[in-house]
């Protein structure tokens, strides 16, 4: 059996301030750092029965620091490798990066048209999987990016490890809310026995929340 555990990073300054931060390297708050240490301690506790074999993480500091806490709390006899990958970054918000969020709906747009800011300099959430802020990514762009992570990192790792590792093989991914949701959706689309669901179904992880997929 293979388990994939996806962990969201700790709380950031921009989470609190409701600022668009995809590739913007928003710092963890004090609470966020404590959350990261706590989730690391949780997965380091022998009672959880989890032996982490490898960790992949977004290189953005909020996710990478969280991943480091999971790595550091593993038994000293086996520290799992921690590998950063740009493919696990959050959705890139383009011109909206660093700008405040507003819940007022944006002007109507065509499905593939870039969504611009309102007159106050705030940006409202995107309304479709193909819409994007100027110079940014759409949800579909993120889906294609994390699918590359599966092909270029996850599958090769599993194939290389199976002859040597005793099951279950436990792989961790430490990333961001939207990226994790799209990753889960991309994985499930590869299983023809699973009824397809919109990746948005998997959104909503709280800071340092986690979800797990098992492949038997």
Alpha-carbon distance between the termini? 5 Å
Structural class: alpha/beta
Q: What does the radius of gyration come to?
A: 18 Å
Q: Briefly, what CATH class? A: Alpha Beta
CATH superfamily: Phosphoglycerate mutase-like
Number of domains: 1
> In the CATH scheme, what's the topology name?
Rossmann fold
What report would you give on this structure?
The chain is of the alpha/beta class and 216 residues long. It has a single domain, classed as 3-Layer(aba) Sandwich (Rossmann fold), CATH 3.40.50. It is built from five helices and five strands; from the N terminus they run E-H-H-E-H-E-H-E-H-E. The protein has a five-stranded mixed beta sheet with strand order 3-2-4-1-5. Strand 2, helix 3 (61-72) and strand 3 form a beta-alpha-beta unit. The relative contact order is 0.22. The mean pLDDT is 89.
List keywords for this structure.
216 residues; alpha/beta; Rossmann fold; 5-stranded mixed β-sheet; 5 helices; 5 strands; 12% strand; globular
Structure described in brief:
The chain is an alpha/beta fold and 216 residues long.
